Amino acid sequence: MQSFRSKITKPSDCALAIALPLTQEDFYFNLASDTEKDFVRSIFPNPSLVRQEALWEMKYFPEVVEIVNKVASYVETCGVKVFRDVSLNDFENIFRDFEVVTLVAHWRASNFRKTDFVTPNTLLDLIMSSEQNQIQFIQNSFRSFCKENKDGNEYLSPIRSTAEINEFLSKFFNNLLDDSKFHKLIQKQEALTDKLYTKYKTRLILDSLFDSYISPGNRIELFDGLLSVEKFIEVIPNDYNGVFDFVVCNSVLIGNVIKKYRKCIVLVNEKPAILEYRLAVFYRTIISLLNAAEIHYVDAAAAVAKNYIMRQ
């Protein structure tokens, strides 16, 4: 990692942008089935089984809200500017005014979930009737997948419940994300070699082919909703050469895409970002270090990460 020892970052140079819902009212809104929000429902895939008040009081508040609020309050005392309920339009000013921007948000990944299929029966009809080249490949793959799975062919029958069809479709489409033959079919000028990026590009193609039938993946969730990485990149100034620190699950992919189009340094997580560690320990310690020593944010992050690895 490049050293920035000649540069100094002060806490006042840093912005903490929080896009997660932090009030009970926003939590209930995000939990509703008719909203496009994803973060809360990814934690509680079956919210109807438990009272909403219990979900808030016993899990979401102590494991998300309380942690975020405590860290936000602490770093504010150090001089960091904290922005809550951050939407896409907020970022223009944030990037202009701060050398380091840390985003706490949700990443909806490439993998398919049972809830991604809006109209599963119509989607099945399209797959089995289309003459489009890429969809015909999917059609043949689907037939093979059905034969390989017990009772698979019955999923083509309307007697199956929507829940059963969704479960089967999620298994099939996730299998397709890793299908090297499909990868060769969809790649044009761009060679798909990196496994994570290949999944990303494959999901983009599938979202495009079945635009109104499935909810798209590869989305960053800000306070005002889900958006693509490409849409998010548009708000990062072309000349922004600061640091963009992602407190987002599996953000290596996001970082790699951003670095293709912008000059800024992007710090990412290779694994799921557990708030209790990534924010309450890692980020909080970085700000403490900036507050106590003359050091650049990237070097502080490297020192904290090294210390954490040595203690494992």
What does this structure look like?
The chain is an alpha/beta fold and 312 residues long. The protein is built from 13 helices and 8 strands. It has helices at 24-31, 39-43, 52-78, 91-97, 120-129, 133-148, 162-177, 180-186, 195-209, 229-233, 252-261, 275-292, 297-310, and strands at residues 14-18, 81-83, 100-104, 106-108, 219-222, 225-228, 243-247, 265-267. Helix 11 (252-261) links the parallel strand 7 (243-247) and strand 8 (265-267). The longest helix has 27 residues, at 52-78.
List the helices and strands and how they pair.
Elements: E1 14-18, H1 24-31, H2 39-43, H3 52-78, E2 81-83, H4 91-97, E3 100-104, E4 106-108, H5 120-129, H6 133-148, H7 162-177, H8 180-186, H9 195-209, E5 219-222, E6 225-228, H10 229-233, E7 243-247, H11 252-261, E8 265-267, H12 275-292, H13 297-310
Helix pairs in contact: 3-12, 5-6, 12-13
Kindly list the characteristics that best describe this protein.
single chain; 312 residues; alpha/beta; Rossmann fold; 5-stranded parallel sheet; 3-stranded antiparallel sheet; 13 helices
What sort of overall outline do the alpha carbons produce when their principal axes are compared? globular
The CATH topology annotation of the largest domain reads as Rossmann fold
Instruction: Quote the average pLDDT.
Output: 88
Unreliable stretches = none
Give the end-to-end Cα distance, rounded to a whole number of Å.
21 Å
CATH class category label of the largest domain: Alpha Beta
* Class derived from helix and strand content: alpha/beta
The description of the largest β-sheet is:
5 strands, parallel
Helix content: 40-55%
CATH architecture call of the largest domain: 3-Layer(aba) Sandwich
Count of separate DSSP helical elements: 13
Write down the domain tally.
2
Order of helices and strands: EHHHEHEEHHHHHEEHEHEHH
Strand content: 5-15%
Give Rg in angstroms: 22 Å
The number of distinct β-strands equals: 8
